[in-house]
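Shipment paperwork, digital attachment
Item: protein structure file
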Amino acid sequence: MTGHALTFALVGLVVMVWPWSLVPAFLLAATERGPAKLAAYAAGYVLALGTVMVLAATLLPPGPRAKSTGHLAAWIELVVGILLALFVLVLWIRARRAEPVTPKWLRGLDRLGTVAAFVLGLWVPNYMLVTVAVAELTLLELSGGEAVAAAVLWVLVATLGVVTPLLVLARSGEDAAAVQQSWREWLVKHSSAIIYVVLGLVAVVLIVKGGTSV
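Attachment content:
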């Protein structure tokens, strides 16, 4: 139970700082009509995560099914963790000498409208990690209101990253543009390192959790 809760919480934190969700939020904040675009993007992001997690909490069976598949789930976690660790290692080896580049689709954010920003918010969540969170939610053996409350809390944590620049814009006044530009440059420069750290943490948790349960 504790291991499932830890993985559930950790995945929420990883989704919160996932660069390819976070970077577009900060880039949108630096564009023309940035606050409106960012609000639409955050709304789409919250709607996507909230729909998936609340449906999982209300429709998927808890407890008994989780117990009957616990041994298989442990092996899956162990294998996924090892593969994820190898994937991170390969990414690091390939990219350690590469110069940081802003992907073309991120540069195109400057031309996005409000509706397109909302659609982008629906599209960018890392649904692979969301699937892991859904699986851990069912293994927590919660039911009814408890499961929904856990799902809502997870969504709130997971979306803190994309709403942060909106809060900063609201409080920075005339300095908002300069602040957002500096964050834009930093995030693009360090996005690969962020990916290595968060994926590495997930890999370690999966390996340890799966290895101790097989």
